């Protein structure tokens, strides 16, 4: 028996349904930020991985230092630096672009290590065969090594995608209007935080489950020997 407490289920449900369209606007921003950040991380991470594998120490060592710096400093610090420090030097970026760039830079350090592991996992004989065919280093990577590495790195890349998706609420600190930001605004205006924050948590749970299922399907669907990039 409960004393002094009555839960009005109907009003709570009505309130939840009334704010869903508002949170839906934030959901779009959240998905866009995660997609943009992940695209940056995929491209920049591959660039970092290839540069770090360079035989020239003047290229590989500075690249390794950049990767370690991005990986070992907090995302929030990098986000504040891009949003508050760069304008001092005349570089002003929109809040959304700043957030996506911060996510991409942070996770490019992680994806570069995933790429490096995948590239190292390709059999040495593949390099020797490419050398015997007189293929250049660029063609060897693009036509032989990277296609074979992709199926090997899908699970790890998927984990980072899910992790990045859950990191997007951090962008609210630089005024990116994502779901968490809108949920807090709703709470400030209605003095009801439980429902909007619970909905945000539930939506993130659904998103991560869908992403995990899609990654698992992709892992099974891709041929184990590699894919053709052209």
UniProtKB/TrEMBL annotation:
It is found in: Cell inner membrane; Cell membrane. It comes from the Bacteria. Residues 27-215 form the ABC transmembrane type-1 domain. The chain crosses the membrane at residues 12-31, 38-61, 81-105, 170-187, 193-218. It comes from Rhizobium jaguaris. This is Ectoine/hydroxyectoine ABC transporter permease subunit EhuD. GO terms for cellular component: ATP-binding cassette (ABC) transporter complex. It is a multi-pass membrane protein. The keyword Transport applies. NCBIfam families: ectoine_ehuD, HEQRo_perm_3TM. It holds the Pfam family BPD_transp_1. GO terms for molecular function: transmembrane transporter activity. One of its GO terms (biological process) is amino acid transport. The gene is ehuD. Belongs to the binding-protein-dependent transport system permease family. HisMQ subfamily. InterPro entries: AA_ABC_transptr_permease_3TM, ArtM/GltK/GlnP/TcyL/YhdX-like, Ectoine_EhuD, MetI-like, MetI-like_sf. The keyword Transport applies. Keywords: Amino-acid transport, Cell membrane, Membrane, Plasmid, Transmembrane, Transmembrane helix, Transport.
